Amino acid sequence: MFNTKDWLRTRNRQRVYTRLLRKQCSEHPDGFMFSGRNQIMEKGGHEPFEVDLVKTLLGEVQLFVNVGAHHGFYSCLALSLGTETVAYEPEATNIKMIRKHIGANSFITPFTLHPCAVGSLSGELTLHGGGSGGSLLEDNPSNAPKGQQQTVSVVTLDDTLTLTGKKSLCLMDVEGFEYEALLGCKSILSSEHQPYWIIEVWSKDKLNAPNPMFSKVFSVMGAHGYKYWGIDEGTKALTPLTADVVSNIQKGIAKVAYSNFLFIPEDDELVNRLLN
User: What is the DSSP annotation of 93-139?
Assistant: First the structure.
């Protein structure tokens, strides 16, 4: 049965995306051409503490991996600093936006775009929604219209990413699919040259109930010898977390005001330099 409301919502989102694709790029404060979806993104006000942290970490690595690259902001940031970059993004309009932004710059640093999602197995899945909220979860947090659904290719990081001894930083923002994505990169997590990670993990779902996958992400990382910190934009600080604290957040006993987390191998001396 034709759903008029769903059709109108889909058409409205398509108009927004068309405007974004046509929007002229301007120079971002970090030194590259970009066209953000709003002035906060465009003028350098987006997640300033995390952006500074990413810039610090990029100075420690030879490879940046942008999983769920959206419009390519962090990819452009890494490329502007001369860091080889590999990006993964499944949503059709976002892929066009990434190519637009890469094309607007004169990066000479190698860049690879995988136009696909990342999961625990290779194949195809339905992406619900688009823009910044598209999710492989059927009960996705964006509450997107059904007209926006699209079938996307899914790959694993283990199958498509070669670190070849390079120290790397992986930034993952996959709208609730983090645990599945991590299950597909156990070889990378166990490698001699373990990457640094920044992963967005929401502690609550769209109904404000505890996210059942929240603690599983930390369990996977902890099992591979990672320590973890909350990236708190409010206090501009890295907040150390333990398995007990994560468990209390999962149960709703403890609350956090942030959703981005830093993971570093426990024996890596970078921790001391970041916290001092």
Answer: HHHHHHHHHHHTS---S-EEEE-SEE-SSSEEEEEB--TT--BSSSS
Q: What angle do CA 214, 257, 266 make, to 5 degrees?
A: 55
Burial annotation 157-185 (CB, 10 A radius, 16+ → b, else e)? bbebbebeeebbbbbbbbbbbbbbbbbbb
Which CA distances in Å does 233 have to 45, 51, 98, 138?
11, 10, 25, 29
Q: Are strands 123-127 and 150-155 parallel, antiparallel or unpaired?
A: antiparallel
**Whole-number Å distance between alpha carbons of 35 and 64:** 21
CB 169 within 8 A of CB 175: no
Place of tokens 């590999």: 86
pLDDT in tens, the chain (276 residues): 556 666 566 677 778 778 888 899 999 999 999 997 665 565 556 789 999 999 999 999 999 999 999 999 999 999 999 999 999 999 999 999 999 999 999 999 999 999 999 999 999 999 887 666 678 887 655 566 676 788 999 999 999 999 988 899 999 999 889 999 999 999 999 998 899 999 999 887 666 677 888 999 999 999 999 999 999 999 999 999 999 999 999 888 888 889 999 999 998 888 778 777
- Region class of 222: left (phi > 0), else alpha (psi between -120 and 50), else beta: alpha
Whole-number Å distance between alpha carbons of 161 and 84? 13
pTM above 0.85, yes or no: yes
- Which residues have a Cβ under 8 Å from the Cβ of 173 and sit 6 or more positions away? 67, 68, 70, 199, 200
